[in-house]
């Protein structure tokens, strides 16, 4: 930026004309549980109007397998009058990043997946991304294989989390501590149980399984495990709220009209991203039984998706003032360090398993996967 080599613009067509290498990083959301490609279409159309001979287009979004060649490529060729491989290159390289550390992931943490519409595209795409990825690149045989690979990553995590959420319910009925069992189980190298919690959020993990389901349905292939995992994870906010409200019953206080503090609106700890956060479902479940709700998040200062009756604050003391029940819905690191003395007069439900229960012996405390209150 100091040297004037970086420019930002809203004129996508002109940006395409002035550049040789175009990267499409638009988000892909769901509409009726199928991929909504409206943003992809708009970006591809703009790029096509400025596409020149010798240019390279890199598509980086996670999409249902087949999207790049069956949807993006025809738009690029139709809008430009050029032919892929002969006149321009087309590369698919899915983003493999963790929210909050994207640059480090791209440069240092993982190999970059690269696929091309043909041998020329693959060669130039691999050369370009090799300049950035210190862990080198993995060349895929086809674009569809690379698209499928990225969807597999998200589905694996969603299914694994669903398994842990199912095991949590069994552990609670058995009266054992799931977290102790998980730690012991994961000491075996072939076991990698993920963390359970109030739900799965973000623009990735709860979305990508539907891309696989969509592709499977088109081919009339069953995807039962993927569908069931989505169902298990989507029901966790309701399950956790039910467990948390049962603590109020033990104190003799009614569930309805109770004052509840929800800690965390972001979908994951340490970030401000609230997209598809399960905290919204936690709040909705509490509203359905008539609770009065305050929400605290150290990174989120305003949110137009919350109902008007819900108070959002960055000040923890204000959020806790007058509360009868605290539900940890997001694993922000600040919450793990909370002083138990601030919570002496409230019931605490740890929906993310981040609190050390031994520190809360003088507090009515419970949490997901804990053997007992």
* Main sheet summary: 6 strands, parallel
User: Beta-strand percentage?
Assistant: 5-15%
CATH topology of the largest domain: Rossmann fold
State Rg.
Answer: 24 Å
The shape is elongated
Q: What is the topology?
A:
Layout lengths: L11 H7 L2 E4 L4 E3 L2 E3 L1 H13 L5 E4 L7 H14 L8 E4 L9 H8 L2 E5 L2 H12 L6 E3 L3 H32 L3 H8 L22 H11 L5 H11 L1 H15 L8 E5 L14 H11 L3 E5 L14 E3 L2 H5 L4 E4 L4 H4 L10 E4 L13 E4 L6
Parallel strand pairs: 1-4, 4-5, 6-7, 8-9, 8-11, 9-10, 11-12, 12-13
Antiparallel strand pairs: 2-3, 5-6
Short synopsis of the structure:
The protein is α/β, with parallel strands linked by helices.
Could you explain the architecture of this structure?
With 373 residues, the chain is of the alpha/beta class. It folds into 3 domains: 12-141, Rossmann fold, CATH 3.40.50; 150-233, N-(1-d-carboxylethyl)-l-norvaline Dehydrogenase, domain 2, CATH 1.10.1040.10; 235-367, 3-Layer(aba) Sandwich (Rossmann fold). The protein contains 13 helices and 13 strands. The strands form 3 sheets. A 6-stranded parallel beta sheet has the order 10-9-8-11-12-13. The protein has a 5-stranded mixed beta sheet with strand order 1-4-5-6-7, with helices on both faces. The longest helix has 32 residues, at 143-174. The model has no long low-confidence stretch (mean pLDDT 94).
């Amino acid at each position: 930026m100091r040297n004037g080599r970086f420019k930002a613009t809203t004129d996508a067509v002109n940006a395409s004309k002035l550049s040789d290498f175009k990267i499409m990083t638009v988000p892909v959301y769901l509409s009726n549980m199928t991929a909504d490609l409206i943003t992809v279409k708009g970006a591809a159309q703009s790029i096509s109007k400025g596409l020149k001979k010798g240019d390279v287009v890199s598509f980086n979004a996670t999409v249902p397998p087949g999207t790049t060649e069956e949807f993006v490529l025809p738009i690029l060729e139709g809008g430009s009058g050029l032919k892929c491989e002969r006149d321009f290159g087309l590369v698919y390289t899915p983003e493999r990043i963790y929210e909050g550390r994207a640059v480090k992931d791209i440069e240092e943490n993982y190999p970059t997946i690269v696929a091309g519409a043909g041998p020329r595209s693959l060669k130039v795409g691999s050369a370009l991304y090799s300049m950035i990825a210190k862990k080198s690149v993995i060349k895929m045989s086809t674009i569809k294989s690379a698209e499928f690979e990225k969807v597999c990553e998200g589905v694996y995590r969603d299914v694994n989390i669903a398994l842990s959420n199912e095991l949590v319910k069994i552990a609670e009925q058995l009266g054992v501590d799931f977290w102790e069992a998980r730690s012991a189980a994961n000491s075996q190298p072939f076991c990698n149980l993920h963390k359970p919690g109030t739900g799965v959020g973000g623009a990735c993990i709860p979305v990508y399984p539907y891309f696989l389901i969509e592709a499977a349905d088109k081919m009339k292939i069953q995807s039962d495990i993927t569908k069931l995992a989505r169902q298990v994870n989507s029901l966790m906010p309701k399950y956790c709220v039910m467990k948390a409200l049962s603590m109020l019953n033990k104190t003799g206080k009614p569930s309805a009209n109770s004052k509840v503090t929800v800690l965390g609106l972001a979908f994951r700890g340490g970030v401000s991203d609230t997209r598809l956060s399960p905290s919204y479902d936690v709040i909705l479940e509490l509203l359905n039984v008539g609770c009065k709700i305050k929400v605290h998040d150290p990174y989120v200062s305003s949110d137009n998706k919350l109902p008007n009756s819900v108070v959002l604050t960055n000040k923890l003391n204000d959020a806790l003032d007058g509360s009868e029940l605290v539900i940890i819905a997001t694993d922000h690191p600040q919450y793990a360090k909370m002083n138990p003395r601030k919570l002496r007069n409230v019931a605490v439900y740890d929906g993310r398993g981040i609190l050390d229960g031994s520190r809360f012996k003088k507090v009515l405390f419970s949490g997901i996967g804990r053997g007992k209150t």
